[in-house]
Amino acid sequence: MIPSLVWKTAAPVAVAAGLLTFALVGGSPQQVQADISVPMQQGKPSLAPMLKTVMPAVVNIAVTSKTEIQNPLMQDPFFRRFFEGPGAPQPQQRESQSTGSGVIVDAKKGYVITNNHVIEQAEEIRVRLSDDREFEAKLIGRDPQTDVALLQIDAKTLTAIPLGDSDNSEVGDFVVAIGSPFGLRQTVTSGIVSAVGRHTGISEGGYEDFIQTDASINPGNSGGALVNLKGELIGIPSNILSRSGGNIGIGFAIPINQARNVMEQLIEHGSVQRGRIGVIGQDVTPDLAKAFNLPSARGAVVAQVVPGSPAEKAGLQPEDIILEANGREVQSFVQLRNAVGLMRVGDKVKLKLLREGKQREVTVVVGEAEDTVATGEGLHPALAGATFGPNATPGKSNGQGLDTRGVVVQQVAPGSPAARTGLRPNDIIIAVNRQSIDSMATFEKLAGVKEGQLLLHVQRGDGALFLIVR
After folding, report:
1. Of the listed 28, 98, 166, 222, which one is catalytic?
2. Is 457 marked active-site?
């Protein structure tokens, strides 16, 4: 039987007891100019001259983290009630190590860009250069929704890689991937750009605009470099699609234009400020294209304009078909959401749209996003390991008299503190300490205490329950 395809999100190579084990993976492409002649060395075609200038900028990242080991029975909140107290079994911590890759993007300031998943659980981060120098890294900031993180090292005589323009990447451009697959430092593989603008759904709620490549990407490549033949960085390998966890020629990289935007905001604010224009929409399906008399099933149809939003002020209306955003074709609503979400508050987005069969242009000033995704690590310690997001159906009743406002538990890591509290994915937290949750901001304020007890009122399916968080 042919095994099913499995997404492996870009991740480091975990090292334990001298054996290599793999968690998340990464992969991704970028471009090369078609009019560039093949470099020659000693009378033969070779990429060596370009690689000699680029490879010193690609580094190895070693991460030390601690994970808790606990009796599986203690994850059951009903079982735990009988064993809580001074004599209760305490979770044990085990130190683990993993490796990934990174790229020096600013030699003077020591900035190193990598993937968020490479360093998100780190207790200690160390960067090893191509000349074997090793430095402890400072985390400047990270953005889980784009899987980008920025580190800084205090080192002299660094080599930075020049940043290219990933918007110019085209299918067929030659690219080279550089990283540390399986811990093998300074490994180079080559291929072409297989596709651009990929939205895979690998990261639920994330911002995706991947470059797809067939350059060999494997565990440990995550956070490394995807460069064109000019030696310019055009992508950060992040994910692969694989049956076995290894490379099958379908890898994905974060475009450097997107990563650069995130990096600049991390430097300036320490976090990313999401933009919004205030429209709710959907993809143009073949049936909708027929209903709207459209020539093709491409674009995003506006289903609702949020009152008082930038979109309403700019004159957008329901049934508008958005065709382009800042000159770039919009093929889906997700693509439009990603484009706007990565823009800064105050930026302008010029939309080309179709209304009643006539094309027109509308300029919208990007506003600040009201709802965000929160991770438990920034809240009460017992919520660590969970991801929370806004409820998609606020204010509606479930037929049992329960108000479904609140925040949704999007993910719960197995064995995490949040899992031990009894939280499950798709739970809706409607109150904290008997105070109703009407927004993400309210939830983060009430659940952001670092000690003490929380009383969570949780809706689960058609029922509800209370959970004590200590």
Report:
1. 222
2. no
Model confidence at 379, pLDDT cuts 50, 70, 90, reads confident
pTM of the full predicted structure?
Answer: 0.68
Phi, psi (rounded to 5 degrees) for 418: -65, -40
Q: Tell me which of 202, 237, 271 is where a domain ends.
A: 271
Q: Is 37 a catalytic residue?
A: no
Which SS3 state, helix, strand or coil, does residue 233 take? strand
Claim to verify: residue 211 and residue 158 sit in the same structural domain:
yes
C-alpha distances (whole Å) from 132 to each of 28, 114, 115, 177 are 26, 19, 21, 20
Q: Which candidate in 117, 166, 173, 320 is catalytic?
A: 117
Give the model confidence (pLDDT) of 417-468 as tens digits: 888 889 998 899 999 999 988 777 788 889 988 788 899 999 988 888 999 9
SS3 312: helix
Task: Look up the domain containing 197 and give its range.
Answer: 1-42+51-271
Catalytic residue among 143, 147, 209, 320: 147
pLDDT (0 to 100) of residue 210: 92
Q: What is the spatial distance between Cα 434 and Cα 416, in angstroms, rounded to a whole number?
A: 25
Q: Which amino acid is at 44?
A: K
Residue 222 appears among annotated catalytic residues:
yes
Residue 1 tokens, joined: 């039987």
